[in-house]
Write a structure and sequence with these properties.
Pfam families: ADH_N. This is Alcohol dehydrogenase-like N-terminal domain-containing protein. GO terms for molecular function: oxidoreductase activity, acting on NAD(P)H. By secondary structure, the chain is α+β, with helices and mostly antiparallel strands. It has a domain of about 140 residues: Quinone Oxidoreductase, Chain A, domain 1, CATH 3.90.180.10. The chain contains 7 helices and 15 strands. Helix 5 runs parallel beside helix 6. It is elongated and about 65 Å long. The structure holds NADP nicotinamide-adenine-dinucleotide phosphate (NAP). The site of NADP nicotinamide-adenine-dinucleotide phosphate has 18 residues, from helix 3 and strand 11.
Length: about 280
């Protein structure tokens, strides 16, 4: 196996991506070295280049979602062999939770580190959060799954303290979405019972529409849109004892007993690890 590889660095904050050479690192105990075949563009990748957050040291290698082949297996690992097709969500480093106004908020800061990053030919990964690619999807498809799936899973099923209360039975009579009409068939195939067309109904009108369709107090809302309006609309829809899971890290506080859980689609904070 070669000892050097090509890597794509971001030279400096808000700078340009530059191709360079770097050593291929040996996996430590509990780690795999993965030959990256497909690296998806994670939203964080372009946002960090544009706005400069999370990264503490430059030049930096990005790349959060990858799929590839196990190139080398570190000590103490069972269940993985050289050549296994795998996919994984990076980065792996996270610090302490942010103190927030919400007792239920648990949003972590995380950052990339160059040994655990996808925009290079070989990356190290911790074996305990690596998945094997099912035979019915290819590398490109697999690389798009980790962040999106993780975020959705935390929002719907996450463990206590990171997402919706697990003691609450999730057996809704109605699942109402606010989305473009062209997503209707797909959403219904997933179990959605009502689609409110965002082309027809403005966001400000969704509250009334959702309440009318529900015909009963709305207990759970999952917001997957980051804009100035969405979180407020979601809170308006919620019943007083309801819960909102929100991917928007800026989503604020709870009112009248309504809880807001900030969803962080990252498997690496200690309290997300086991769920991951
Ligand atoms: N907190 C976290 O850990 C975390 C993790 C992953 C993603 N995120 C954030 O979550 C958001 C969604 O990510 P994604 O990967 O799903 O993005 P995406 O692939 O761009 O999809 C966004 C979807 O939202 C729809 N949409 C946009 N504005 C809407 C509105 N006002 N009302 C209803 N639907 C609307 C779009 O509809 P059309 O198809 O009709 O345009 C599209 O289907 C992003 O802002 C991302 O930054 C957060």
């Amino acid at each position: 196996m070669a000892s050097t590889q090509k890597v794509l660095y971001l030279e400096k904050a808000k700078g340009a991506f530059v191709m360079s050479d770097a050593p291929i690192l040996k996996p430590g105990p509990g780690q795999l070295s993965v030959k990256v075949i497909s690296a998806a563009l994670n939203l964080a990748d372009w946002k960090i280049q544009a706005y400069d957050f999370f990264i503490t040291k430059y030049p930096a290698i990005f790349g959060g979602d990858i799929a590839g082949d196990v190139a080398e297996v570190g000590k103490g690992i069972e269940g993985f062999s050289k050549g296994d097709k795998v996919y994984v969500l990076l980065p792996v480093h996270v610090s302490v939770p942010l103190a927030g106004p919400n007792a239920c908020s648990s949003f972590f800061r995380g950052w990339y580190s160059n040994e655990f990053a996808g925009f290079q030919q070989y990356t190290l990964v911790p074996a305990d959060i690596v998945g094997k690619i099912p035979s019915n999807i290819n590398y490109d498809q697999a690389s798009t799954i980790p962040l999106a799936f993780t975020t959705a899973a935390f929002g719907l099923l996450g463990p206590a303290g990171t997402a919706l209360d697990p003691t609450l039975e999730f057996k809704p009579n109605k699942i109402i979405t606010y989305a473009s009409a062209h997503h209707s068939n797909f959403l219904r195939s997933l179990g959605v019972t009502h689609v409110v067309d965002q082309g027809e109904v403005p966001a400000s009108g969704f509250t009334e529409a959702a309440k009318e369709i529900a015909g009963a107090p709305i207990k759970l809302v999952f917001n997957l849109v980051i804009d100035g309006e969405a979180a407020g609309v979601c809170l308006d829809i919620l019943n007083r004892d309801g819960q909102l899971a929100d991917v928007n890290g800026e989503a604020k506080g709870s009112g009248n007993g309504r809880k807001v859980y900030l969803i962080f689609g990252n498997l690496h904070p200690p309290n997300n690890r086991e769920f991951g």
